[in-house]
UniProtKB/TrEMBL annotation:
Organism: Gopherus agassizii (Agassiz's desert tortoise)
Residues the entry annotates as binding ATP: G113, E114, S115, G116, S117, G118, K119, T120
GO molecular function, one term: actin filament binding
Pfam family, one: Myosin_head
Protein name in UniProt: Myosin motor domain-containing protein
Keyword Metal-binding in record: no
Locations listed in the record: Cytoplasm; Membrane
GO biological process, one term: establishment of epithelial cell apical/basal polarity
Domain Myosin motor span(s) in chain numbering: 20-158
SUPFAM superfamilies, alphabetized: P-loop containing nucleoside triphosphate hydrolases
PANTHER family xref list: UNCONVENTIONAL MYOSIN-IXA, UNCONVENTIONAL MYOSIN-IXB-LIKE PROTEIN
């Protein structure tokens, strides 16, 4: 309908849908940029900084410490399948660690992001969890190898 002065007025009916909290973006019923960003925003508001996209973990830097990195969480994520618990960096570390033990092959975790996105902090959390797992006595000497990975080489792509 055209209103006065050539302004186009458009009426829309809005459905008030409860915003669901998807911990894996692959589960979104309508996957598009808007729903993806809305879901991440909703989770971030609840201080849920981790979200999966299949086996990939998205982390949104909260720029503050959250109480989700203590021994309780180390134990909770020990030897669990990815996606069975709330997304967490410990879950990714745990899957890589147990895959290394079972397959007897090196594993790789890629951490990527913009400057200030929390890559170094995420690496520290990974190393912390891997060290805690190795101290359980599964593999001798793993702790020293993991701690030797301390200085992380950052590659900048231009």
């Amino acid at each position: 309908w055209r209103g006065r002065g050539g302004v186009l007025l458009h009426w829309q009916s809005y459905l008030f849908v409860k915003h669901l909290d998807y911990d894996d973006l692959c589960s979104l019923p309508d996957l598009n940029e808007k729903t993806l960003l809305e879901n991440l925003r909703n989770r971030f508001k609840q201080e849920k900084i981790y979200t999966y996209v299949g086996s990939i973990l998205i982390v949104i830097n909260p720029f503050k410490f959250l109480p989700i990195y203590n021994p309780k969480y180390v134990k909770m994520y020990d030897n669990h399948q990815l996606g069975k618990l709330e997304p967490h960096i410990y879950a990714v570390a745990d899957v890589a660690y147990h895959a290394m033990l079972q397959r007897r092959k090196n594993q790789c975790i890629v951490i990527s992001g913009e400057s200030g996105s929390g890559k170094t902090q995420s690496t520290n959390f990974l190393i912390h969890h891997l060290t805690a797992l190795s101290q359980k006595g599964f593999v001798s000497g793993v702790e020293q190898i993991i701690l030797g990975a301390g200085p992380v080489l950052e590659v900048r792509l231009k």
